[in-house]
Specification:
253 residues, alpha/beta, Rossmann fold, eight-stranded mixed sheet, 10 helices, globular, binds S-adenosylmethionine
Amino acid sequence: MAEKGHEFLARIGKTRLRPGGIEATNWLLEKADIKEDSKVLEVACNMGTTLVHIAKKYGCDIVGVDLDEKAIEKADKKIKDNGLENKVKAIYGNAFDLPFEDESFDVVINEAMLTMLLGDQKEKALREYYRVLKPGGMVVTQDVVLITDNNNERAKELRIGLSRAINVNVEPLLSDGWESCFERVGFKVESKTGPMTLMSIPGMMKDEGIFEALSIIKTGLQEFNKEYFQRMRSFMMDNKRELGYICFAGRKE
Ligand SMILES: C[S@@+](CC[C@H](N)C(=O)[O-])C[C@H]1O[C@@H](n2cnc3c(N)ncnc32)[C@H](O)[C@@H]1O
């Protein structure tokens, strides 16, 4: 099976696999208002970068779920390397059927996953987050937003182009479409948008550090990786005016 874009980026050394990078994550974390005694769930934790970041920053307990067993192994290693086994866990789990009781969490964080869900699957996942959140709890997300003046044909072209560029069938929405999904589920939302920085050079430097970003670019341009790296990056750069990130902070009232 063809390597997915986020698997490829992880293989060449990228640790943050999300459209708005650390800038968007910082906004989400500010809105989530995590305390030391908060119970936090990260859906789509991948290699555990955010799990470890949150546990260190806030001292809270956090559990991550993901469908990718190899990424969970990496997350486990990162948790152990940071001596956080008592606070942080990464387990196999599906956003559609979370292995947790109703009203178990104060915060659910979910970055760069809803874009990968098609049709009504986005709402299905959001309903599951609503179920596991305590009343007053917050869901915080970041995803890809299309900026196309509501032109359906162009939106369709961008979805097809992005899906081809990253080898994953994705369905990013316009900002109104995203907002309606959250509201239909019952979340009261605030949002923020900005440029997609996943593969821009300044974005990579901010997310990973200067030397790490240079190493990622160098690895990406090696013979074996070059075609894929350039295909992904060119699509994102060529369409940068019409592709952005959108973050939501939604409260369960
Ligand atoms: C683009 S990566 C983002 C990873 C990480 N959240 C980040 O921002 O760096 C998408 C992740 O979503 C996970 N994923 C996709 N569908 C999922 C589902 N239904 N339940 C849980 N995880 C899922 C994938 O395995 C992958 O790790």
